[in-house]
Records
---
Amino acid sequence: MKNKSKIFLVGFMGCGKSTLGKKISSKLGKQFIDLDDFIEDAEGMTIGEIFEKRGEDAFRVLEKEHLHTIINAYDDVVVSCGGGAPCYFDNMKTMLENGVVVYIKLPAEVLVSRLKGETNQRPLVANLGEEELLDFVKSKLLDRIPYYTMSDFIFDSLNEKEKDLLTKLI
Ligand code: S3P
C-alpha cells in the first residue's frame, strides 16, 4: 500500500492543478503547496524573472531542489507541480517513491482555451498567438505524456468528479 500522506498533482499548464489541489487539500485535511509559488517565495523572483535572468535550465534545477525541500520538510501535503516538473531529472521517480502522484488530464484544445488569457504569467507560452499556442500545446503534450502517465492515478478532468478522486486518496 502506498503512503498517501503526500499527494503530487501533475499535468499540463492550465489543467487546473492548483484549483483542484486547494479543494482536495482542505477536504483531506492536508496543507496545500504550489511548487511554483514556493520557488518564487524562496528565490524572491517570479517564475518569469527566473526564466528571463537565469534561463530555463537554471529554473529546472531550482524546481528539482525545491521539490526535494518540500518532500523532506512536509507531511500531509498536497503539492501542485509546474507542468514541466515531472519531465526533468528523476523528479517523477522521486514523487512516486514519496507519495501518490495524480495526472490531471485535459485535451489540448481545452488547455488552450484556458491558457489563452493567461500566457503573460507563463514564460513558455508568452507572446504566442492562438494558432501557435495550439501547436505548442499539442507537441509539448505529446513529449510529456510518457511522464505524466507514469502517475499512480489519472484524473480525467472532463468526465470525472472531484469526489471520484477523493475516494482514491483517502
Ligand atoms: C511550466 C509550467 C509552469 C511553470 C513554468 C514552466 C512548464 O507551471 O512551472 O512556467 O514547463 O509547463 P504551471 O503548470 O503551474 O503553469
---
Amino acid sequence: MNTISLSQGSGGIESNKLIGELFFSRFDNEILRKAEDAASLDLEKIAFTTDGYTVSPPEFAGGDIGSIAVCGTCNDLAMVGAQPKYLSAAFILEEGLEIALLERIADSMARELKSVGAKIVTGDTKVVPRGSVDKIFITTSGIGTRKAEDISASALQNGDAIIVSRSIGAHGATIFAAREGMGFQSDLKSDCAHLWPAVDALLKAQIPIRAMRDATRGGLAAVLNEWARQSNVGIEVAEQNIPISREVRGICELLGFEAYNLACEGTFVLCVDKEYIQAALDILKNSTACREAAHIGYVTEAHLGMVSIANPWGSRRYMEYPSGELLPRIC
Ligand code: MG
C-alpha cells in the first residue's frame, strides 16, 4: 500500500500499525514509548506554545512541512528564552496521501528534533476523506524550560538597539517561487532553522535581552509594528542596514513585494540595550543560522507606535503594518 487509507485513521489495527511503523520508529523516546493517553512530565518554570502548519506545497527548497512544524514551534519557545523540550504532534492526513511523502516529512521532523534536543512525547493521527484537507496538516504544541525572565514585546525602551539575525524574507520568497513554478532562482531556499542555539549563546553570555520575536507571517514589518505598539515606542530603521539576499530582492522586484513583509522561518529580531550591540552581533555571527546578523536601527521617543524607515539618502517613510493576505498557507 503506497497511499494513506481511511482505515489508517480508524483507531483500529491499521492506525496502530501506521503510527507504530511510521511515527514511533522515528520519534522514539522513553515517554512516547509508554503510549499512554497523556505524557507525564516533571517540569517547572515552563513556556508553552502551539501552532498549526498548512504550508503548500508541503515540500520546498530548504525544508518541508515537518521541518517547519518542529522548528516553528521550538522557535516560539526560544523567543521567550525557553529551551525546547517536549512537543506534541497532531497529523491530519488526506486519504490518498503518498506514504513516501509522509515518511520524508517524519524523517525531517526526527532530524530537527534531534538537532535541538527536543522530543515528541504525545501525538494524534487522523485520516480524512479525499478533498477534506490538502495532503497534510500538522499541529505541534511545545513545552520549553525557561532560562530567562522578562523577555517581552512590551519591554522596549527608548535608545535600545534593534538587530535582525539574518537576511529576511527567504521562506516567503521560496514558497511563492515554488507555487508559481519559477525554476530559475536556484540559490533561493527557505531559511527554516532552529533559533535556540543562538538564543542559548546570547543567554549564556548574559546579554540582557529586552525582546525577541521570530519574523514569521508578516515578516520583519509585522514584528517591528507589534513591538512599537505593545511597548508604545517608535522604531527607526535604516534601509541599507537590513540584509536582503540577491535572490529575495529579485523575487520582490519581479512580483512587486516588499521584502519586509515576507515570512521567515529561521530569522528573528532582537532588541537589546545599545551598549550590547557589538557583543550580541559577535555571538550571533558565530551561530550557523545567524551569520548575516545586522544592527538595523533604534527605539525612539518619536512617532510612538509606528516604525519609520530611512533610505540611504535620508528620507523617511513608515514601514506599514502588513494588511490583507499576501500569501495564504505560507507556513
Ligand atoms: Mg513567533
